[in-house]
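Q: What residues go here?
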C-alpha cells in the first residue's frame, strides 16, 4: 500500500541548473519527512530537468515533470499542473531558488494541525545572491495585529510570498493561478482570490524561508516609474478584477478597476499601449456605469493626443 504524503511541495522550475540543488537539498534537510516534491520544468534551456531527474532517482519523494506543451508557458501554468499531480493533504508552494530552513515544514504543519486551521503563513527574509547577506523581509507589518482579509491583502496592508503559505488541499483546490500573468503579481492575484473563501488562517512569527534576491531584480522591482512596471501593474489589476467577478465583491472589483484606470492614464500620457483596454471597458461599464466606461475611453484619448484628461479620468473612477 502506497502511503500518501502529508505535504505536497510544488515547485515550478526554469533555467535553475546552478541554483536548484541548493533548494532541493534544503527540502531534504527538513525535520518533517512526510512530503512529496512535485517539480515542473517550464521547458528549460539548460540542464535543469536533468538535475530534477537526478534528485528523483536519489529520493523517490521527488517527482520530475515537464510542463505539457499544450499548456501556456510560465510558472503559473506549472503550479496549476503540479497541483493536479500532487496527492498531499496539505499544499506548499515554493520557488526554485529559495532556501527552506530545516524546521519550515514541521512548524507549519504542527500549527495547522493543532489549531485546526485552513492555512498558516510563516515569514521570510531576503538574502543577497551575490554575497549571502541578509537584506530584510519582503513584507514588514505588525503580524500580531494584522487582520487577514482579501481587501487588506489587496491594499498591501499585509502580505506574504508563495513560500510562506501552507494550506489544506480543500482551501486551494478551487483557486487557480492566473496563467495570463507571466511574471510579477502571480501570488498577489492568487491570494486575493483565495481569501474570498471562508477560512481560518493564522500568521506565524517564525522566519522559515530565505528568499534569494538578485541585484538586477532589486533595480527592476523599485523602478515604479517605468512604463513596463506600469503596464504590469495595470494588467494585474484588470486580471484580478476579472477573476473576482465570480465572488461578486463589487467593492473590491471597483477598487482594482479604479487602480487599473489610474495606471492606464499614466501609460496613455506616455504614449504607451494600454493592456486589456477593450475588456476593461466592458467591466467598468458593468461595475461602475456605462457612462464611466465611455469617460474612461475619452480620458485615454485626451491623454494620448493632448496630454490632458486627468480630471476626466478621476471622474470615471468615481
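A:
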Amino acid at each position: 500500500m502506497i502511503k500518501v504524503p502529508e505535504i505536497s511541495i510544488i515547485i515550478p522550475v526554469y533555467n535553475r541548473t546552478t541554483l536548484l540543488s541548493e533548494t532541493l537539498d534544503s527540502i531534504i534537510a527538513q525535520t518533517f519527512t512526510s512530503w512529496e516534491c512535485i517539480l515542473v520544468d517550464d521547458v528549460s534551456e539548460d540542464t535543469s530537468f536533468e538535475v530534477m531527474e537526478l534528485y528523483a532517482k536519489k529520493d523517490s519523494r521527488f517527482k520530475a515533470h515537464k510542463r505539457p506543451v499544450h499548456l501556456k508557458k510560465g510558472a503559473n501554468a506549472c503550479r496549476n499542473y503540479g497541483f493536479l499531480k500532487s496527492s498531499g493533504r496539505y499544499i506548499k508552494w515554493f520557488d526554485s531558488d529559495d532556501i527552506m530552513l530545516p524546521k519550515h515544514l514541521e512548524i507549519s504543519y504542527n500549527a495547522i494541525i493543532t489549531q485546526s486551521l485552513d492555512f498558516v503563513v510563516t515569514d521570510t527574509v531576503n538574502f543577497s545572491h551575490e554575497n549571502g547577506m541578509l537584506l530584510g523581509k519582503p513584507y514588514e507589518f505588525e503580524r500580531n495585529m494584522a487582520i487577514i482579509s482579501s481587501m487588506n491583502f489587496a491594499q498591501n496592508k499585509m502580505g506574504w510570498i508563495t513560500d510562506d503559505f501552507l494550506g489544506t488541499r480543500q482551501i486551494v483546490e478551487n483557486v487557480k493561478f492566473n496563467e495570463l500573468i507571466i511574471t510579477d503579481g502571480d501570488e498577489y492575484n492568487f491570494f486575493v482570490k483565495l481569501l474570498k473563501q471562508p477560512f481560518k488562517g493564522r500568521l506565524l512569527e517564525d522566519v522559515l524561508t530565505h528568499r534569494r534576491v538578485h541585484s538586477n531584480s532589486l533595480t527592476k522591482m523599485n523602478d515604479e516609474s517605468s512604463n513596463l512596471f506600469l503596464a504590469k501593474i495595470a494588467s494585474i489589476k484588470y486580471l484580478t478584477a476579472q477573476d473576482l467577478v465570480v465572488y461578486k465583491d463589487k467593492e473590491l472589483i471597483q477598487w482594482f478597476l479604479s487602480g487599473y484606470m489610474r495606471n492606464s492614464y499614466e501609460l496613455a500620457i506616455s504614449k504607451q499601449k494600454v493592456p486589456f483596454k477593450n475588456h476593461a471597458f466592458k467591466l467598468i461599464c458593468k461595475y461602475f456605469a456605462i457612462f464611466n466606461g465611455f469617460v474612461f475611453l475619452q480620458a485615454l484619448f485626451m491623454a494620448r493626443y493632448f496630454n490632458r484628461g486627468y480630471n476626466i479620468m478621476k471622474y470615471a473612477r468615481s
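A: Context that may help when evaluating the design: DSSP finds 13 helices and nine strands in the chain. Residues 218-222 have pLDDT under 50 and may be disordered.
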